[in-house]
Amino acid sequence: MTEPTRVAAAGGTVSAVLPFLAGGTDLIARAAGEWIDLRDRTELTGIAWQPDGSARIGALTTIAELARDQRLRAAYPALAATAAELATPQIRAVATLGGNLLQRNRCAYFRAGFACHQNGGACCPAREGIARYGTVIGSGPCVAPHPSSLAMALLAYDATVEVEGRGHLPVASLYGEDPTRDHLLAPGELLLGAELPPPVAGERAAYVRATGRVQAEWPLAEAAARLVVAGGSVVLAAVAAGGVARTPVRLPEVETALLAGAPIAEAAARAATRCAPLPETRYKVALLTGTVEHVLAKAIAD
Hints:
Enolase-like, domain 1; 23% strand
């Protein structure tokens, strides 16, 4: 997985614009050339805990570390569960938080070199071709879903990210509807890490992904849910979805329904109200609502 591009300098003079190399699980597979290796930036690794119980996760922390850290699993169970389901053990051992947040999309047309918005073209060939893996939320020019599961989980926690030179920003500010880009960091900007607010007592959480095969597959739809239940009622709800839009998304209509006392199935069905599917992604409407219903039921049972 890749970090953003950065201006490389030698003797104070700008020499080139090169991509960062973190885990490299996607960058090396996609492109040949030179990179700026971040693996000696040890200050970007690990999980640091603050006195109030909040956590800062360095951008170079591996997915495997997130999945196995027992304190993280207790404090932020939806994030840890999401990390544990990603890719394969081999990928999780080298892929990083920063790389997952800033990776490129998986569109087969883009990856095969077809002219498209992502590589300087003026169209989206998936719209007129094979789009069964495309978006179901949003109507922008590009229909490639954003692939970051961890961004989705961090959205559910109202986390922030730290960008060198810009300070702390909401996770959502990394992403937008620009069809030419999968994230909004500019060349020269480095993602340093993510910060989560203090844990919530009594949180129930879960993560669910719908895939075409059991392992080593990108989700067609996925969801993370955080709930606090008191007196038989949901008093806190945070639900996010991935694999369905150009950006990871929160589902406020589902959250509002849960807080109003709606049954799980009824609340999950509210996710369909924002869907604008392509002809080949109509199936994802039911897949999304089913995935949300499943994750809510799993969280309630936690």
